[in-house]
Design goal:
mainly alpha, globular, 22 helices
Length: 511
């Protein structure tokens, strides 16, 4: 757990620098809008739908069968070839239908954005093939407890992205010229990442045994029931993101890019800690459920949910209350100006509040997945997605672009409440645990909330003083916030989950 957390921390830092350099290179120009719109559909289908489903739903099946056979040949026949064929068909379909799809996505964004999006879109279509294969390789590694290489894959991808942006910026290319080169660099980076992961698998394959097509049939059957609901979850998530971009496009030039920047900043804690937690929890849960260890599953659920809230509540509050100084300090350079910072921070203020709910849903789905109970959670995601898009449409009329963030928070909270209730119905007694801990968790974060609120007011006095004063303010705020957070946790006897991150390794050994 600790190793994966450290690698994910490195990933989050690399992603943050990549996004900062991308913001400096493209800003909130119409080229930035076109880039993010062209990237959205290939990434949504290749990574967030097919990739997410394969890297999650296949792990329990592979874990259950890994002791019986070498899965390498079976995975090649049962997954790699069918997935590659499916992805090629999807890629062809997207090419044929790209005009009506982009017309919906870019509605209201302007003719210049629409034309540039059409020219960038074909360059990114390879992601639909490459990313699912990388996710499948990652699920194979997770099933064999090789978490480090699986976690390093996105680090490699985003490092290559970052290097591409730096090179293009050094060449002094304007956004109009550089955006096409960047669109070529994205699939090239994804392909190089896939090659590295595949080479890593074949350099250390497991011991071979010959179980033939019977194992392959079982492999397909054991993961098919998990794959369909996870696919529905992923599709509903992308439907929400597409709806957000639809409403953002109607708010004026640059809002789509600002939404993308705000979204990625808000996801920082999820990439760093919660993704590591979810990766380690999934195979551990599968083994515990296979052994009928209900008590162990419930204890693991309670531990991981407590840790999740203790990590996402403070980060969510910090990103929300200090959205303007954070965006200004990190992103204001190059093409990203003060106007861009205002739009981005207004969206981030609401988006960041969704973090605890998103984390609870992410972990809760893992617990329901290993029980084979993902049908109702999948429909819950569909319902919350529809609610979120409807709320976005209403809130942007009242609050402008900021309404997109608040709509996302309300939808995520609704989904989290339903997920916790479904965990209770599944026999995982998490409701009583959350009731007993919730007041303590809230009380523990009151000192932090006070420090953040005072810092937000102080920023008004510092905003015109220059970069040096900004960074002095940032250092002082970070130090005061850390002390207040640790003091609050210690006073409520909640410091131990933070100082015992490796505790999940104990669960892993016991399970």
């Amino acid at each position: 757990m600790l190793t994966v957390t450290i690698i994910n921390l490195v990933l989050a830092i690399v992603v943050l620098f990549k996004d900062l350099r991308l913001a400096a290179f493209l800003g909130t120009s119409f080229q930035a809008d076109a880039f993010f719109l062209a990237f959205f559909i290939p990434d949504a289908i290749g990574n967030n739908v097919l990739g997410m489903c394969l890297s999650t739903a296949c792990v329990p099946a592979l874990v259950r069968l890994r002791e019986a056979t070498n899965l390498l040949q079976q995975v090649m026949r049962a997954y790699v070839l069918p997935v590659a064929g499916l992805c090629l068909l999807v890629t062809g379909g997207l090419w044929l239908l790209h005009r009506p799809l982009l017309a919906v996505l870019a509605a209201g964004a302007g003719s210049h954005v629409w034309q540039l999006t059409q020219s960038l879109f074909p360059l990114m279509l390879l992601l639909v093939v490459i990313q699912p294969l990388t996710a499948l390789a990652s699920s194979y590694l997770q099933a064999h407890n090789r978490f480090s290489l699986a976690t390093l894959a996105p680090v490699i991808l985003n490092t290559l992205w970052l290097l591409s942006i730096i090179v293009l910026a050094r060449m002094d290319l304007a956004p109009r010229a550089g955006v096409h080169s960047l669109a070529i660099a994205v699939p090239v980076a994804a392909l190089l990442t896939l090659i590295v992961v595949v080479v890593g698998i074949f350099r250390q394959p497991p011991t071979r045994t010959d179980q033939g097509w019977e194992i392959e049939s079982n492999l397909r059957e054991s993961s098919r029931k998990d794959l369909v609901p996870m696919l529905l979850v992923a599709l509903s998530t992308q439907f929400t993101l597409m709806g957000e971009r639809f409403w953002a496009g109607k708010q004026g030039e640059g809002v789509v890019a600002a939404l993308s920047y705000a979204y990625r900043l808000a996801q920082f804690p999820l990439w760093t800690f919660i993704a590591a937690l979810a990766m380690v929890v999934l195979p551990t849960l599968t083994r515990a459920v296979a052994k009928g260890s209900t008590t162990r599953v419930t204890q693991l659920a309670a531990d991981s949910m407590t840790l999740t809230l203790l990590l996402t509540i403070p980060t969510g509050m910090s990103l929300s209350l200090l959205a303007k100084p954070i965006v200004t300090l990190l992103m204001c350079s190059g093409s990203f100006d003060a106007s861009s910072a205002t739009i981005t921070s207004s969206i981030l203020q609401g988006y960041a509040l969704a973090l605890p709910s998103l984390a609870v849903v992410l972990l809760g789905h893992r617990f329901l997945l290993v029980r084979g109970l993902m049908n109702l959670p999948a429909w819950s995601c569909v319902f919350s997605s529809i609610v979120t898009i409807a709320l976005d449409g209403m809130l942007v009329r009242w609050f402008g672009p900021a309404g997109l963030g608040y709509g996302a928070t309300i939808g995520a909270l609704l989904n989290a409440i339903i997920t916790v209730l479904l965990l209770h119905l599944a026999g995982i007694e998490i409701v009583a645990h959350l009731k007993s801990q919730l007041l303590r968790i809230v009380a523990a974060h009151l000192p932090l909330a006070g420090v953040l609120a005072l810092s937000a007011r102080a920023w008004v006095l510092v905003a015109e003083q220059g970069v040096l004063v900004w960074w002095m303010f940032a250092f002082g705020t970070a130090l005061a916030a850390l002390v207040a957070w640790l003091a609050g946790l210690n006073s409520c006897s909640l410091l131990w989950p933070i100082t015992s991150l490796v505790r999940l390794d104990r669960h892993n050994r016991v399970a």
